[in-house]
Model the fold of this input.
Amino acid sequence: MTPDRAASAPLFSPREAEHERHALASVHRRPNQKLNPPMSDRIVGERYSTASYRRAIHRALGEAFPVPDNTTPEHAKRWWKDHLWGPNRLRHNAGTFLRREFGIEVARAILGHSSAVTTLIYAEQDERRAVQAIAKVG
Done:
C-alpha cells in the first residue's frame, strides 16, 4: 500500500498486487527463464470485483496450502476442496449470524435480498433456537 493513497481509494488494489507479484517473479526466476510481461493496466482494474477477489484468495491459499507432492488427481481435487474458500463464505457466515441475532427480515434487508427465500440460501437455520422453543413450549 502506498503511503500517499487517497482516503477514498480502495484499501487493496489488484493493479498494485499484480505489479508487486510481477516484481517478485522477476527476482525469483531462474537465470535463463523468460519473464512474462506484466499485465497491462487496462486489464487489471483499480478495484477488486467479486471474481478477482476470489481469484486472489485462491492464489494466496494455493501458496499457503500447496497440494502435497505425489498426489493423485483425485486426491488433489479433494485437497483443494478442503483448503479453498471464497468471499461468499463470509457473506454466508454474516447472513447466518444476522438471522440468528436479529431474524430473517433484518438479515434479508442487510444482505440486500428482495425476498426472504433468497436469504434462506445464505443464512442457515439456528437449530439452537428451535430446541429452545420446543423446550419452552413443552
